[in-house]
Amino acid sequence: MTRLATTIMLFGGLAGLASAATAGALTAALDVPSTTVHYKADAFATDSGTRALYRRLSEAAEQVCPSSGNSHLVSEVVLKCRQEALTAAVNKIHNQRLAALHASRMTKSG
User: Fold this and answer.
1) Where does the chain have alpha helices with state H?
2) Which among 36, 48, 49, 82 has most CB atoms closer than 10 A?
3) SS3 of 54, please?
């Protein structure tokens, strides 16, 4: 069995804010938060396996784009960051079934 991995990176608003700083802007842009999600190719063999992997990717996006403070409300910047991170991960994996699931979820939430 092939073991694959994908890394979710924060390229959205927080990276833009970090790169806006004049000193060390390049370093800040390269040090964006990321996490690796390991999975097996056979995860895509079933709808439930695809949904489970998608859920794990969503959780990873929440890790790299955390909400600040104790507020139960998540800001638009954080939500956009999570969507961009999740979209980047789905695109990196390049699986038709996962992409279709992601598209259906983005349509429902958008």
Assistant:
1) 13-20, 25-30, 47-64, 76-93, 96-109
2) 82
3) helix
**Spans of all domains in the chain:** 3-109
For residue 75, the 8-state DSSP code is P
Q: What gap in Å lies between CA 64 and CA 87, rounded to an integer?
A: 13
Determine the longest span between alpha carbons in the chain, in angstroms.
48
User: Residue 22 and residue 93: Cα distance in Å, rounded?
Assistant: 34
Q: Which two tokens stand for residue 67?
A: 């909400």
Question: Where does the pLDDT of residue 13 fall: very low under 50, low under 70, confident under 90, or very high at 90 and above?
Answer: very low
The rounded distance, in Å, linking the Cα atoms of 3 and 22 is 40
Neighbours of 78 (CB within 10 A): 19
CB 82 within 8 A of CB 61: yes
Distance CA 16, CA 32 (A): 10
Strand partners, 8: 35
Q: What confidence tens digit (pLDDT) does each residue in 62-82 have? A: 999 988 776 667 788 999 999
